[in-house]
Amino acid sequence: MEKVRGDFRTFDTWFDSSISELAACNYRSILFEDNGENYFERNFPCSIRPQGKEIVRTWLYYTVLRSYHLFKSPPFNQVWISGLIRDPYGGKMSKSSGNTVDQLLFLQPTILPKNTPEILKPNRESWKIIAEKESSPKFSLEKTSTNFYYGADSVRLTSCLQGSHGTDIKFSLSKLDGNSKFLTKLWNIARFISSFPNEIKPDTITPTDDWILSSLDALIHRCNEGYSELNFAKPAENIYNWVWNIFTPHYIELVKHRAYNGSEEENMPRKSAHYTLHRILTTILKMIAPITPFVTEYIFQEIYQPSGSIHMELLTKSEKGKIEEDKRTFDLMNLNSFLWKIKREKGLSLKDAIPKVSIPKSLKDYVPDLIQMHNIQNLSISHKKNLKNTL
């Protein structure tokens, strides 16, 4: 036994994977004949390496080591490190633990073609272990007909909303289901806006439209800041919250009457509303396209460029470069929320008329749209800032 020793020729298989950047850049014509195009010289080092944090010691380390041995330089300029998908309790997902979920369940329709290969057929029962851990009423184990076909965009959006740089994600069926509703909302917004003509920028923009465009500009700045940091959680969260909490309930409701019934002769310019709605939609589509590429591509081609691609468009740039939300946003949101609350307390529907309202002086420029939005019969301007005394 004194002469027995381990095989010293054993080689870590991860070292073989370190050739990935060289292969991608066609080092020594490994993939195709170069024919004097200097493909490797023009593309190496790569711009970025995306990978999981659990293989930093293996794939990342060996790739850097090989590159330094061959070229005395790194193989890429940046590394984007993601976290792990864990079960609802934060436990590591593994087949041996029986807590994995088949991702094809969310990507494949319920009814598949007869010739679908077995490898592309999802495990229809794999959701139950997650549902049991999550204990969500919506995903009761008794519900055998639950449809989990959310699509790739919902999965991608959920991943961005739940995890940023290197952070782990606790997988949640409820959150995946909830985030898919945002894409439904985006779809409905696009249908609404597509019913109006895409106007060129008019000579005059109304104060209401100017407010939302200023708010949009701040959103653009925050999103671009996140993209520049490769922190996709930032644009995902900002767009989600802005569309859901500002644009849809406040601006669309403010502008809806003017978009349908306004005219250029009255103090209700319709073209300004149409221009603003389309500008916002195209901007939102471009800003969230890297996260939800499929639905944004479809909407963009259906409404704007049938033969084009949103993925050939550049991200919109901020004009003002301000990250803070426009102050007018909070003034309008507070007033709208206050009037909605009053209607609820009085048992009125949102369409019912309000006999008399007194609003702060800071909101006087929005009177025409506010009257139509809340069906106000008599509106006056008050110097008081406390909304409790305005009705």
Describe this structure in words.
The chain is mostly helical and 391 residues long. The chain has 4 domains: 13-82, no CATH class; 86-149, no CATH class; 190-325, Orthogonal Bundle (Isoleucyl-tRNA Synthetase, Domain 1); 330-389, no CATH class. Helix content is 47%, strand content 7%. The protein contains 14 helices and 6 strands. It has helices at residues 13-17, 20-24, 39-43, 56-71, 104-107, 127-134, 152-162, 173-193, 207-228, 233-261, 270-288, 293-303, 327-345, 367-374; strands at residues 46-52, 76-82, 85-86, 169-170, 357-360, 379-382. The strands form 3 sheets. It has a two-stranded parallel sheet with strand order 1-2. The chain has a two-stranded parallel ribbon with strand order 3-4. α9 (207-228) runs antiparallel to α10 (233-261). The longest helix is centred in the middle third of the chain and has 29 residues, at 233-261. It is elongated and about 100 Å long.
CATH topology of the largest domain: Isoleucyl-tRNA Synthetase, Domain 1
Oligomer: single chain
Question: In one word, what is the shape?
Answer: elongated
Q: Termini distance?
A: 95 Å
On the 0 to 100 scale, the average pLDDT is 86
**The named CATH superfamily of the largest domain:** Isoleucyl-tRNA Synthetase, Domain 1
Name of the CATH architecture of the largest domain: Orthogonal Bundle
The helix fraction, in percent, is 40-55%
Order of the strands making up the biggest sheet = 1-2
Q: What does the main sheet amount to?
A: 2 strands, parallel
The top-level CATH class of the largest domain is Mainly Alpha
Strand content: 5-15%
Query: Helix segment count?
Result: 14
Total separate domains: 4
Helix-strand pattern, N to C? Answer: HHHEHEEHHHEHHHHHHEHE
Number of separate strands: 6
Return the structural class.
mainly alpha
- Poorly predicted runs are none
